[in-house]
Write a structure and sequence with these properties.
mainly alpha; elongated
């Protein structure tokens, strides 16, 4: 297999894992958004900001421990700081779209709010994917990453009976 094709396969797996975590994060975000709107009198953008923060926490756990578990784990303080910084920019993008629709155009029915919240999430997701993979969850040098993956796969496989030591 060519190195380029294995790199493409890694990128496809990364995008797929990012998509799974992000997809569940969208349901968390929209679920919390609609719950807060239903049980409180908070304005639409404030309810959205609360939902986005809850989704950011959920997504960090999913990204760190599943999508990017093979990435550099040194400097967790730096990683978390950058994650929160880029997440805050994503929050502004996401809720800026909702703010513009709600207060700029007066589109504030529950359906319209959900549509523009979803649109804002989509636009912010493109930014988040780029920033997280580039700055937050940095790749290890390829030899280190491969040795970590090989070590993990050996730990997860049981030894054959013929090689076990009593």
């Amino acid at each position: 297999m060519e190195p380029r094709s294995s790199g493409l396969q890694r990128l496809v797996r990364e995008v797929a894992k990012f998509g799974v975590v992000g997809g569940v994060g969208i349901f968390v975000n929209l679920g919390v958004f609609n719950l807060v709107r239903h049980v409180s009198d908070l304005p639409v953008v404030r309810a959205s900001i609360i939902a986005t923060v809850v989704a950011i926490v959920f997504n960090y756990v999913g990204f760190r421990y599943w999508t990017y578990r093979d990435r550099d784990k040194n400097g967790r303080t730096r990683e978390l700081t950058l994650f929160l910084f880029f997440s805050a920019i994503g929050l502004v993008i996401e809720n800026g779209v909702l703010y513009l629709a709600t207060y700029g155009f007066g589109w504030d029915s529950p359906l319209q709010s959900n549509v523009f919240k979803f649109l804002g999430i989509g636009i912010a997701t493109l930014f988040r994917f780029w920033s997280y993979r580039t700055w937050v969850f940095r790749a290890l040098p390829s030899q280190e990453a491969e040795s970590i993956l090989v070590a993990e796969s050996k730990r997860s496989r049981p030894e054959p009976k013929s090689q076990r030591v009593p």
